[in-house]
Amino acid sequence: MIPVSRSLLAAFLGMLAVAGCSEAPEEPHPEANPLLFEIASADGEVEGWMLGTIHALPDDVHWQTSTIQRVVDEADYLIVEIAALDDSAAIGRTFNELATSPGQTDLTQRVEAELRPALRDLMARANRSDDDFSTTETWAAALILARVAATGDPANGVDRVITRKFAGREVREFEGALAQLGIFDQLPEADQRDLLEGVIAEVEQTLERPGRLRNAWLTGDVAILEEATRTGIMADPELRDALIVQRNRRWAEQLEDDLRESARPLVAVGSGHLVGEDSLVTMLQQRGYRVTRLGQ
C-alpha cells in the first residue's frame, strides 16, 4: 500500500476506484514539493524524469508545482504502473476474477487468535461479516478491508491527473491491472495471511494519523516515505521482496530500454518506489545514470 503499507494499499484502492472518505482539512496542507527526479546520462544529457505519486487526494491539495508542470510539458510520453486507471469496470472485473475462489475458511480463522477481535471490529466498520468472504481469497479480503482507512478521492490521484495531462501523447504502462493484482494473487497463502494481519494493524494506525503519509508525499519527506517501505507489512521480507524489490527490478530493466530511445519519458509511480537502497533511483544509478532530485 504502499510497506504494502498505507501508500501501496492506497495504490490498489485507487486502482479499484474506491471512493475515499470525505474529510475536512485538519490543518493547512504543507507547501508542495513531491519527489521529482531528473534522469541524465553519464555525460549529463537529460534522458527523462521520475515523479513519485499518491493515488488519492482530497480536493483542496495543490501539488502541481511549476517544476512539475514544466516537466509534464517537456516529456514526450508517460510511463505509469497502470495506463487504464479510469476503466474502473474492467479493473473491477479483473479483481473479481482473481479474488474469487470457493471453499474459503472463515476470514476470522485466517489470522492468529489474538488478532480475531480486532479483525471482527474491522469487519464491522466495513459492514462485513465472515459470510461475505466465504469465496474471497485472503489477499483480496485484505484489500477490501483496507478501504476502511481510505481517504481522499481516487479521481484526484496523481497518476490519474498526470495521465489526463498526456492526452494526445503516448502513455505506456509497467504492469497493467492484471499483472499488478496478480502479484497479490500469486502470494502463498501464508503471505496473504501476513498481509491481512498487517492491514488490521495499519488501518488502526492510519485512522489515528490520517494525514501523515499524505503530508510526507506532498513535501517529499524521504525519511518518512522510506520508513513506510520497511515497517508494518513491509517488515515481512517475502512481502517486501514481492511488492517492492522485484517490481523495481523489472521496471528498471524496462526503463533502461525506454531511456535508450530519443524520446524522453516522464515516469510516474508510487513514491515508495523512489526511495531507499532498492529504489528505482538507486537501480538507475547503478546502471550509470545520474539521477538528481529537482526542487519546486
Structure, described:
Helix content is 45%, strand content 10%. It is globular. A hairpin with a 5-residue loop joins β1 (36-40) and β2 (46-53). A six-stranded mixed sheet has the order 4-3-5-2-1-6, sandwiched between helices. The protein has 296 residues and is α/β, with parallel strands linked by helices. α3 (88-99) runs parallel beside α7 and α5 packs parallel to α8. It has twelve helices and six strands.
- Quaternary structure: single chain
Sequence stretches where pLDDT stays below 50 over 5 or more residues: 1-11, 13-25
Strand order of the largest sheet: 4-3-5-2-1-6
H/E element string? HEEHEHHHHEHHHHHEHE
Structural class: alpha/beta
* Bulk shape: globular
Q: Strand portion, in percent?
A: 5-15%
Could you tell me the number of beta strands?
6
Rg result: 19 Å
Distance between the termini: 26 Å
Q: Averaging pLDDT over every residue, what do you get?
A: 86
Helical fraction: 40-55%
The largest sheet is: 6 strands, mixed
